[in-house]
Amino acid sequence: MIKFKSIALIPAAGMGKRMGASINKQYLQLSGVPIVARTISVFEQSPLIDSIYLVIPVEEIPYCREHIVEACGFRKVVAIVPGGKERQNSVMNGLRAMQDVVSDSDIILIHDGVRPLITELVLQQSIASAKLYDGVLVAVPVKDTIKTVRDGVVIDTPCRELLWQAQTPQAFRFGKIFSAHVSAETTGFIGTDDASLVERIGGKVHVIRGEYQNIKITTPEDLTLAESFIAAAQREG
């Protein structure tokens, strides 16, 4: 039986301007723990994950190493990689950092550093599906009617039954996602997510249903909502 390594690649290089905080959003406290530390903890504690690569703005690497990785005792974090100009560039930096120590068949789970409420079940399903498909996208059906708008005027109302809201992790074999990023970099293509790069080179991306609580913390309202999810889980636990 072939043994696949499963590696988490966590880009946390965003500036978080919409949060309006004095520090980057990944370091804000969420129920007493920095957001990015909560995110890393899920992968650190999962028996399915072999190693973790963090992608951080270069000027924040010493702070992240001392106050997040070392302070929390994360043992699976094998590298803290400098981020790039765009998220896509940051992911490519992370892929290049692991290129010499992974095989094309190893599974890479790319997960936003500010999505701290991901669950073990979703990780398990993502890894299992990534062994079968070109890529795996965690997503949830949209709840609201979506409008296509141009210059303030509605030009289309897409069928809601066909629309899913993409989340992370997005999981791929290393060879497939690296090739997709190389192709995009070579041609100057910028995608909205990593799955779009695989779709662009003809890969079939499978969708597994995620969880609505797996939010990306971008605004102060998101932080409040995440706090409520954690409080509810603690009451039920």
Provide key terms for this protein.
single chain, 237 residues, alpha/beta, Spore Coat Polysaccharide Biosynthesis Protein SpsA, Chain A, 7-stranded mixed β-sheet, two-stranded antiparallel ribbon, 11 strands, 23% strand, globular
Protein architecture, described:
By secondary structure, this protein is an alpha/beta fold. It has helices at residues 35-45, 61-72, 87-98, 120-130, 174-187, 194-200, 220-236; strands at residues 6-11, 29-30, 33-34, 51-56, 77-82, 107-110, 135-141, 148-150, 153-156, 164-173, 205-209. The strands form three sheets. Strands 5-4-1-6-10-7-11 form a seven-stranded mixed β-sheet, with helices on both faces. The chain has a two-stranded antiparallel sheet with strand order 2-3. Strands 8-9 form a two-stranded antiparallel ribbon. The longest helix is centred in the C-terminal third of the chain and has 17 residues, at 220-236. It is globular and about 50 Å long. The N and C termini lie far apart (37 Å). The model has no long low-confidence stretch (mean pLDDT 94).
